[in-house]
Amino acid sequence: MDIFITVNLIEIMEGTIRSNIEVGMLVRIVLKKDQRSANLTEGVVDKILTKSPKHSHGIKVRLEDGQVGRVKEICED
């Protein structure tokens, strides 16, 4: 039971579950051009682009500044 809880918390922080991401949320994403370097870009979610409930590489979003990438971290308020 403890392992299951830990995995779910990791998934939430990594942004792999669509229902945990909302418009207006502060997140860190990896842009396509930065996938090899793992450089993260911080911004506010404007639109959620991934339709499926889960994605192993992160939910794809568009930030308010127009940049598109996959959520790697959800920032705390």
Q: Which band does the percent of strand residues land in?
A: 25-35%
Q: Sheet with the most strands?
A: 4 strands, antiparallel, barrel
Q: What class, by secondary structure content?
A: alpha+beta
CATH C-level name: Mainly Beta
SSE arrangement, N to C: HEEEE
Give unreliable regions as ranges. none
What does this structure look like?
This protein is of the alpha+beta class and 77 residues long. The chain has one domain (2-74): SH3 type barrels, CATH 2.30.30. It is built from one helix and four strands. A four-stranded antiparallel beta barrel has the order 1-2-3-4. It starts with a helix and ends with a strand. The relative contact order is 0.28. The model has no long low-confidence stretch (mean pLDDT 86).
Characterize this entry briefly:
This protein is an alpha+beta fold.
Architecture blueprint of SSEs:
Layout: H1 2-14, E1 26-31, E2 40-48, E3 60-63, E4 68-74
Antiparallel strand pairs: 1-2, 1-4, 2-3, 3-4
Defining key terms:
alpha+beta, 77 residues, SH3 type barrels, 4-stranded antiparallel β-barrel, 34% strand, 1 helix, 17% helix
